[in-house]
Amino acid sequence: MSAPFDATPLLRAVAARRRARLLAMDPALTQHALLMGLLQEAAATRFGRDHGFATIRSVADFQRAVPLRRYEALHDDYLAASLPVLDDVLWPGRTPYLALSSGTTSGRTKHVPVTRAMMRANRGAAFDVLVWHLAQHPRARPFGGLSFMLGGSTDLQAVAPGVRQGDLSGIATAGVPWFLRRWAWPPERIALMPDWDAKLAALAAEAPVRDIGTLSGTPSWLLVLLERLAARHGMPPLPALELLIHGGVAWAPYRDRLAPYLPPGCATREVYPASEGFVAIADRGEGEGLRLNLDRGCFFEFVPVDELDAPNPTRHWAATIETGIDYAVVVSSCAGLFGYVLGDTVRFVDRAPPRLLVTGRTSWTLSAFGEHLAGEEIEAALLHAAAQAGVAVLEYVVGPEFVGHAGRHRWCVEASGACDPAHLAALLDTALRAQNDDYAAHRDGAQLAPPELVLLPPGAFAAWMRAQGKMGGQHKVPRVIADPARFAEAAAALSDPGRGRRPS
Prior knowledge:
Strand order of the largest sheet: 6-3-7-8-9-10-11-15-14-13-12
Structural class: alpha/beta
Radius of gyration: 23 Å
Shape: globular
Helix content: 25-40%
């Protein structure tokens, strides 16, 4: 199968107009107008009536009227009574799709509403990925070949009249216009396969490797796919690949491992999508931040992480954000989510336009003993220690455990290459001390014992995820499990994947 024809010349013309519009946008005015439009649209819904949307005239009014909510509160207050049918509950009409997501650390399966307006907004954001790619690579030909999206099963379950649920990738596929499907791969019979191992085998066996120009997915699963393709077709496995789009997990642990599989000149571009909305896209080079999507269906707020659980947290938005501060992301969207705490943390590197770095999850913190380690510090320290030990980290999870009257962190790490786990633990301890004064103080004060590190054999994390039924592009390894009991269950299951399912 090959692309029917190269539609890139038409794409370049449309992309140039869109880029000019993006460059001219005023962030605050654009976001304010979008929020007012969302409130007007949802004013007659149950949520809109409860929160007085019809009388709101400013961002400040909105923030006074609508409290912050995590999924659990939204579920209990608005979803539980009527799922799977949401008629005029959060958004006008019947919500046609529910994206199933377990998150990374929550035990409860989330049913995230996805409206047709949200699908249109997400398609627009996906187009913007190509806009920024063409801006940096004007000779690129993204429609000169096939676009390969590595996602979960696209099979959606009908759970009520007019309502289907499943992986977000399946919902996205259902919304692809017919005239674009001729450039999309894999075909439906493979995309629908629910068994992830069988699907990977089919993808590796049938991929038209010389016709694929764009590949997108989560880095961990992209690596598995490219390894299988290379074993079958040699290096590079996708010789015509010119753009790899990645998101969902941190890029740094995978950059060097994916590089050998990419042909010369292949560009990489990071995106920040979520089931609740498409947040940001890299518009410049790697590490320079992701540009906030200002007009794609989502109004964003940013709460300083240390205020998230305060009675009256400070709620910043495009007009008031500052650089260098760790914020929790809050979204209000055309899917009917308002004041919804997304669960991610970011730090802005620019204000105009807003560009951010994803720094972790609100739940990716370790402070069982007062050490206040952020997810970004945890990952940076481990990668630094591994580099010193001459190994590459493949996957990991860390959590707290009690040892006598003190506590310690236990790390379960899958790495390439051989090393002494005690030596790697000592390097990790040193790196954490250098990064975090609270950690160093607790280590020096004996409240925190030296970390313990367990090296797991290759494939341990994949086996663990498979035992939980969590294989595929929508599922990510939980890197930090802060609850000691849940972490103990996870650590035991990693040592013996047949012992149990994902901690809940």
